[in-house]
Every structure is written in structure tokens, then in C-alpha cells.
Amino acid sequence: MRALISVYDKTGLDDFARGLAELGWELVSSGGTAAHLEGIGLEVTRVEDLTQSPEMLGGRVKTLHPRIHAGILARRDEAGDMDTLAEHAIEPFDLVCVNLYPFESDPSIELIDVGGPSMLRGAAKNHASVAALCDPEDYEPVLAELRDGGISAETRSRLAAKAFATTAAYDAAIATWLSGSEAFPDRLVVPLEKEQELAYGENPHQRAAYYAERGVRRHLLSRVEQLHGKELSFNNLNDLSGARALAREFDRPACVIVKHANPCGVAVGATLEEAYDKALASDPVSAYGGVVVFNRDVYSTLGEKLAEQFVEVLFAPGYSDEALAALQQKKNTRILLDSERRLGEPRERHYKRVLGGMLVQDADAEIEDRAGWTVATGNVGEAQWDDLVFAWRVCKHVSSNAIVLAKDLATIGIGAGQMSRVDAVRIAVEKAAEFGHDPSGSSLASDAFFPFADGPQVALDAGVTAIVQPGGSRRDDEVVAAVSAAGAAMVFTGRRHFRH
Q: What is the per-residue DSSP string for 12-43?
């Protein structure tokens, strides 16, 4: 039995190679892998001795040779293939162990692996006879099967599928890098790698897993440690993604509470505890069982407050020992520690699954201030400006049609996901009244323009004194006139934020 081993990542290699040698396998290798195996005392047949050809072009050509690839691709049940091997004195391989140059860690032309993918794909194609290994996690299970008599057909098929998926993702990462500034190339392949299995999908009868895009600087769970609680579910991560994106809008201490992918309470404050109190007060009913995200460390008194609530997921950059002790009294709360400090990708794309395909767009990730906004009517004081900017940033993360009422840098009413914009305004106003918030003097943000004056009128009648919206309706004049008649102010941003 013969194994061809050529790996960049040597993790687990020593025990695997020793295990093969103990079973009587011949080890064939080249370059650094051969030197490594010889260094731990194993006998190795070098590829250049097998091919009678030296490595060329600085190592670019070493395994690209018929004596290598014929030994991988020969079909054992095809007499003609075996006759050809015998005619040319080529011995077949029974296992190919390859992992690829780490292109994604430092993209460059020299880290584009050619020979590795070729050997791996050849073994995967001929997996009925040749086991294709590309993941160190498979070394021990494969050794166990070999010790037990041989590698099963099911395992061979699984390894082949993993090998093809690995080379496909590798090629996709290279294609993405080479496409450079081309935003939407003719062929777009998104390389994804499974980060973890999830407890369940949107519903308990649906299986689910979380995949991260390969090569990105950060992803939803990069440098995130779960300190406590149950397994994460699909809905947990979907809500967490929205909450994290919203929390990054703010530099001051902030709290974001999300339920079913929409914020139900958002606030900033002088302290994190103040921000939490204000966010929870926005809609304490919807906050029950929500995802809570902070942009500062959670300390003892806040931890005790949070422990009094039913929180599905808690996410923060740090926790004091006292806060963590209080929070861990709730056995089901998933407590996540965020150690990620890197910024996101500047060219990040947003993907939305549709029937038979994918819609792809730039991510709506820009953090906006009031630069470039225009006052359409009325006077806006500095405190009102703060509330307008705050409401606008929150509104960007609410499902369309979206309306956000804000006062003193906290949400007091949110109307989300309505087919009619005037209904979204009514819901936001009703939510404010339901939980004892006075809309008088509050500010309103709308993710898109008001097509008629009826929406603003509902808000104005409730006491709203400032409105921010994109503008651009054919009836902007009517809308502005209604706001002006009420003695309120209206600001146009010139940009909308639909979110579907």
C-alpha cells in the first residue's frame, strides 16, 4: 500500500504518518514534507526519485508528472489501466494526503497551489481506489478504519466530496482576489466554510449550520467565545447579525435589543446601564427573549439587572466576574464574549437567497452623519439634530416599511415591516403610547420618502416635532407643507435605506 503525502499544514501529520508506516505503508513525498517525515525518523520515497526528474522552477513543478498522476488515476477494475501501469513500471497510490498553500491568509501569485489541487482532485475522482485526505481532522478516523481492515466506501465518498469542495472554495477565493475591484464579475462563486452546527433552523424541524465566507477578515462569530448557555440556533445568529450591525453605528455606550431580526429597543447613554434601561423601556414586552448587544463591558449592577430578564443571547466585549456570576444563574442564556476588534471588509457584499438563485448587492454598511442633509422646513436645534441622526441610524436596520420614533437618544416607538408607510407610523405612535412614552417633542425617521402627507400627519398629531426622511416624492411639496403648518421641522437625507 502506498500513500502520497504533500502538505503545507503539518498539523497531526506525525501521528498519521507513523500510523501508516506501522501498518506497512510506503510513504512517498516531496520537498518540505519529505524532509519533515525524514526528520521524525520515517523512511520516505522522494517524488524526484520516483519520477527521475528534479524539482523545477523553484518548486513550481515537482508532482506534475505521469508517474504521479497515473498512479493516482489508474482504475483498479480496468485491465487496460493496470496494463499501462505495468508497461511503464508505475505503482498505484492507495491514498493521497494533500492540503493546499494558505492562499487566503496572504494572497499572492506564488501561493496559488497548482500541483496540490491536481493531486487532490485526481484522488477524489478515483476515490473507489484512492482515499483523498485534505483535512487533518480525518487522519485519526481513517487510521482507525485502516487498522480495522480498510476504508469504507461511505468514508471514501465523504472524503472525495470534501476534497472537491475544498478545491472549489480555493479556486473561488483566487478568482475573487484576481477580480480585484470588479464589483460583480460574470461568474460569482462564494466560498463558504462551516463554522458550526446549529441547534435547529428557523423552526425546530429544520436542520441548520452556520457558514462563514472564506478569506474575509471577520465574520459573525470570529473571535467570539460562548461563555455560557445552550447551543446557538439559526434565529439567534440571524438576530445577532442585525444587532451587531446596528450597535456599530454608535461610539457612545449603546444597547441594542433585537427580536425577530428587528430592533425593539435601542439607546445610547452616559453609561451602559443607562443605555440598557432606556432601550428596555422602549418596548419591554417585545424585549422578552430577545438578543441584547452592548458595545462596552458589562459590570456587576448591569449584570444583575440583565439576570432579572429573559435574554436569549447576550453579546458584549467583556464581563466583570460579578456580572458573569449573576448572569450564569440563568442556565439557558447564551453569553457571548466578543474579542473581535477588526473592521469589516470594505467591499463586503450582501447575499439574499431567491428561488433558484441569489440576489447580490453592496452591503448597506456606511455609518452616516448629517453631512449633506438639507432642512426642508423649520428650525432644528442641536438636541433635535442628535435625535434625528440617532433615529436615522436605527431606521436603517429596521425592516421596510420602517418608522422610528426617538427621544433623548432612545427609541420610544418602532413600526417595522409594514406594507403601508402610514400603518408603520401608526404602529410606532401606538407603541410609544402603549409603554407610556410621550411623543411630544420626539423625532421621527422614515427609511424611504412619504408618498403622501397622511403618514407625517399621524406623527405630527401625536406631537412629533422633527422628521428625517430621504425625500424624492412627487408630493414632497405637500408633505413639507403639512409639516410646516404644524410648526415642525423636516430634513431630507437624499438617500433611502430599504431593508427587506
A: THHHHHHHHHHTTPEEEE-HHHHHHHHHTT--
